[in-house]
Amino acid sequence: MAKGLVIFDEERCKGCELCISVCPVKILILHETKINSKGYRPASVADPGRCTGCANCALMCPDGAIRVLREE
Amino acid sequence: MKTVFEFTRGMLPEETTYCPGCTHGIAHRLIMEVLEEKGLLGETIGVAPIGCSILAHQYMNIDMCESAHGRAPAVATGIRRAQPDKIVFTYQGDGDLASIGTGEIVHAACRGEQFTTFFINNAIYGMTGGQMAPTSLPGQKTTTTAEGRNTEVSGNPIRMAELIATLSGAVFVERVSLDSPANVRKAKIAVRKAIEVQQKRLGFSFVEILSTCPTNWGCNPVKALEWLRENMIPYYPLGNLKCPEEVK
Amino acid sequence: MSGKVLMKGNEAFAEAAIRSGCRYYFGYPITPQNEITEYMSRELPKVGGSFVQAESEIAAINMAYGCAVAGGKVFISSSSPGIALMQEGFSFLCSTEIPLVILNVSRGGPGVGSIQPGQADYYQATRGGGNGDYHLLVFAPSSIQEAVDLMPQAFQIAQEYRNPVMLLADGMLGQMMEPVVLFEPIPADRGEDIPGIKPWALTGTGEKRPHNVIKSLYLKPEELEVRILERHRKYEKAKKELVRYETVGLEDAEAVMVAYGSTARIAEEAIEILAEEGIKAGLIRPISLWPYPYEAFDSIPDSVKAVVSVELSMGQMLDDVKIGCRGRFPVSLSGRAGGILITPREIASNVRKALGVER
């Protein structure tokens, strides 16, 4: 059971990959098939079961595309 | 599960037109988070510069005005006189603050103006397409230094935080970086202290924020963070140069 | 204070600004207007106002913009080269529709020029030295009393039109001393009233209203054109409502002089000299320079044989005089430059030359 849950606003995402580069458990990827209306491949969670809810991704997101929840 | 991070309401919902990976988005958010957390969104007036962040007023949910290139500290001085009780800040890039605006920032700091300046140092001119900035590094390739910045012609880059720190009116001076989550957290602490200095009316507060410009540096956003770390931080050391006792 | 007081022009201008409710001044020393800056530094704090000696005129105009944008009633002053530095600021203020009153105590130019009086800032004031489509609203007093009386009107016009207003004085008016009747002080705006008086001002949202944004950049040309057209509707209104001038002796004149500011007073003396020689000369004295009183020229009778623009410049007002005359009369210049004051005798001689009767 994952400690954390990240929710991506795929329309806001510009595919900059900063979140991917700072995820300590390396569970973020650019979506393999989806392209948003701006033409970017949005970031997405490949393995949600390992999310720790550290929020590093959200800290580095310049576009306010990430919301993070964590178990209490 | 509880929410541990969501986009601050200090930022308007409008999506920014900044380039993918541009750290303006992070810098804007940190300032707005601090203002929201302190309940100051309704009390704040911001001054946007000439540069990419001239558009900051489309994203920051506070009263804002544009200013002529480099003149934001003078504009903020005027705002401070008409609105003595409000929180006032300027948000400026390298051309605005370290080139055309050197007179205004030095004198605002000299007078100990009771506002905060956030200085976005990304070692290049973004909006105009990648020309050399006063903060561009020796050897750095830009559109006006195709062979790399030649210090014999253009001198060495200016360390603004150190320069401002020599003025007694500047009571809080810190340089931070947005290249990693750990540094982003430290940057937010500096932003908060700078605002607290203003709240306590202790004097001029200045936060230099090392930032990236992937588009004009010619690399992807993640590589840009590495370039910042490997090249800018050695020249522009991080840390606090001045801090009043009251906010330590 | 009531009754007449003998005051130096510069000090009277400053006192009039304070009495108009101004509580903010940002200035940089420059001759021949330093008495204004010094007066403000002493007197503004006494009425709870704010004085800042700026690091340059560029900083001063930007401080004035910031203060006005945040609701302040601001007055600034400078002289010709300093006004040159402020041009970007004027363009910015007109673009963002921010009220401000500026006083230019003009001196001889170009460049550093002279510290003696001049009227060679006419182009700078009326044709705009800043970029883009905009106008300052410009008024030229010819006595200290007139400048004092114009001051509260300048503030009121600036606020009503949301546009900077310039009072174009000259070094002579600034330095001379004349008896003046000062008006009763108008109360300053209270801070809490500003959001009501100026809902566009940056006063903090209080999280009760959408944020106010003051900007001059419009990346979409369609938007920018709309804004410019809106602004120009204001200028059309100004042309109908703000034209001011005075005429002397036009009815049976042979020649008409056109002069503004202190030069108009010298021209009035020339009327007397010419009258002694049997030449009837009249005078049009523009008080508003932008909008210019072209309509005043329609009162010139057809029998007039010459129109002479009298200026302390190489003829910067000639174009406007010619437009006013609409080709009905030959127009010539009676001018001096470099800070030299023209004399009544010189003017009279130039009028005689224009009439072709010079001895």
Describe the protein in words:
- The complex is a heterotrimer of chains A (72), B (248) and C (359).
- Chain A has 72 residues and is an alpha+beta fold.
- Chain A has a single domain, classed as Alpha-Beta Plaits.
- In chain A, 14% of the residues lie in helices and 22% in strands.
- The model of chain A has no long low-confidence stretch (mean pLDDT 96).
- In chain B, strand 2 (44-48), helix 2 and strand 3 form a beta-alpha-beta unit.
- Chain B has one domain: Rossmann fold.
- Chain B has a 7-stranded mixed β-sheet with strand order 3-2-4-5-7-6-8, sandwiched between helices.
- Chain B has 248 residues and is of the alpha/beta class.
- In chain B, helix 1 crosses helix 8 and helix 3 (72-82) packs parallel to helix 5 (102-110).
- The N and C termini of chain B lie far apart (34 Å).
- Helix content of chain B is 38%, strand content 18%.
- Chain B contains 10 helices and 8 strands.
- Chain C has 359 residues and is of the alpha/beta class.
- In chain C, the strands form 3 sheets. Chain C has a 7-stranded mixed β-sheet, with helices on both faces.
- Classes of the chains: A alpha+beta (72), B alpha/beta (248), C alpha/beta (359).
Overall number of domains of chain A:
1
Write down the CATH topology of chain A. Alpha-Beta Plaits
Q: How does CATH name the architecture of the largest domain in chain C?
A: 3-Layer(aba) Sandwich
Q: Based on the structure given, which CATH architecture of chain A is correct?
A: 2-Layer Sandwich
What is the mean predicted local confidence, pLDDT of chain A?
Answer: 96
**How far apart lie the N and C ends of chain A?**
13 Å
Put simply, the count of helices of chain C is 13
* Percent range of helical residues of chain C: 25-40%
Mean pLDDT of chain C: 96
Backbone CA Rg of chain C: 21 Å
CATH class label of the largest domain in chain C: Alpha Beta
The CATH homologous superfamily name of the largest domain in chain C equals Thiamin diphosphate (ThDP)-binding fold, Pyr/PP domains
Unreliable runs of chain C: none
Derived from helix and strand composition plus strand pairing, the structural class of chain C reads alpha/beta
Radius of gyration based on Cα positions of chain A: 11 Å
Uncertain spans of chain A, ≥5 residues at pLDDT below 50? none
| Largest sheet, strands/sense/barrel of chain A | 2 strands, antiparallel
Instruction: Count the E strands of chain A.
Output: 4
Biggest sheet features of chain C: 7 strands, mixed
Give the fraction of residues assigned to helices of chain A. Answer: 10-25%
